[in-house]
Fold each of these.
Amino acid sequence: MATANQYRNDIRPNWCPGCGHYGVQAAIADAVAALDIAPEKLAVISGIGCSFSRIGGYFYAYGAHTTHGRALPYAQGVKLANEDMNVVVCGGDGDAFAIGMGHTIHAFKRNVNITYVVMDNHVYGLTKGQTSPRSDVGFVTKTSPHGSFESPLPICETAIASGATFVAQSYMVNRAQLVDLIKQGMQHEGFSFINVFSPCVTYNKQNGYDYFKDNLVNLPEGYDPTNRAQAFATLGETNGLVTGLIYQDTTKPSFEQALYAANGGPHARALVHDVVKPDAEMFASLCNEFK
């Protein structure tokens, strides 16, 4: 049985003291340990942002620090080239829902079998405190001195409407719930999206630990995550400030399953082992095709 220590290396995170992201990193390690995933079978992919850009480097596993907003296409490529790999993608609300939103929408729809953990602090932290797509109306920053006048993006509703098959939300303080949701997400056949409220103690004093303590609620007893209409209604009633497994659809095939059906079965072997190394003649022939 794996332990969380197996996924730790000698690199210490450099987040601010009190940052919520420490708890998210620990929860991911606990989840993959509970699933007994070997470090060489785990890839942690990240984009740009103080919340997650280096998180892959804090794990003893495969990892890649990609460009801003582009972690998802990179991660999908990793998974499709080596389907035995367990792929966890980490992002922040700016990276995921602003510059990367085009990729996020299509990842919801495409349903590749990877897990996307977004650390949602309602602010751009790396660039020292600007409004993000998740910032509340009235949120004051140096670039919005009179307060933000844009409404925050309802991301869980957007995910469900876009075709996501696993939509969950948690709070990094609730470690047991977060670990359980990450485990469920990684075991889900298809794309799993987990939005995690992770306070920024330096640049967002409005949405801190006290705010989430006072405003977050858990899903009610007897809630049915397969009921799409109920999911939308619950998100509306709580203004999106609800935690738990909000929606899951196990009937939609994953991208891989749909691909196999279209191609008459899986590829004979992992694409990562099927690298084309053209000789000079083949290389010249390929180049001639573009003349």
Note: The longest strand covers residues 86-92.
Amino acid sequence: MRSGFVSFVGRPNVGKSTLLNSILGKRVAITSDKPQTTRNMIQGIYNDKDTQIVFVDTPGIHKPKSRLGKVLNKQAYYSINDVDIVVLVVDISEKIGTGDKFVIDVLKNIENKPVFLVINKIDKLPKEEILKKIDEYQKLYDFAEIIPVSARKKDNTDRLLEVIKKYLPDNIKYFDDNTITSSSPSFIISEFIREKILDLTSEEIPYSVTVIVENLEEDERSMSINAVVVVDRENLKKIIIGKNGSMIKEIGIRSRKDIETYFNKRVYLELFVKVVDKWRDKEKFLNMIGYKDFLNK
């Protein structure tokens, strides 16, 4: 039996969460083209007859502009040091920038564990361009393996799994075979709601919004959910609510649909909007919403 932990790292918006969902065949991480989509380390568990891989999807490593941003970076750094394999995911359709080089510099401090390069979005470039990009990355770091993929189209993700399995140690299973994520139902629900907000609102919203599930009651057939959308300015509250409540209603409709599909239950969802000034820099608030372990590291 082979098992172990594999961390997906990289700068924001390179497709780490899409890759995780593609491998697992189920959405355990929300996806968006907006910044700071992933804000927590999300564990997705892959099982087959002789392997268990615990994937850790991390927040994109970036130059932080708030206390929250610093915490997100700390989560990513922690995951690098606490796994068996590190996988750097890059977007091949974009030039190698300072963000990519910064992440690679972080990886140069890693000792005694393999670092893979996964070149994502290969469907966007011809083969000749892909080979040129691979050569450019090879000059920056001595990767143990380089695997080109298209996470969106699931191209070559099976090859990535095969390569990962070869590097995993002989070990026990960390989770039972039916577990696909370690995330709690409340966290999954809050992420679905936040994803719909990112999809439906303007560019400034993603940095400024979080979602808290204040109450969750469920039985075998249904779930009743009260959730609060938190923003840091009054004008953003107005955007989230929309004219005559139209935006918050649409967010609720789309969120409820995804939650029902995921849990296979009928869902009753109530959404509220609240302003907490400068919440991204308030230690007490960040502690309350689950970042306690990384605030003082």
Note: Residues 12 and 60 are 4 Å apart (CA to CA).
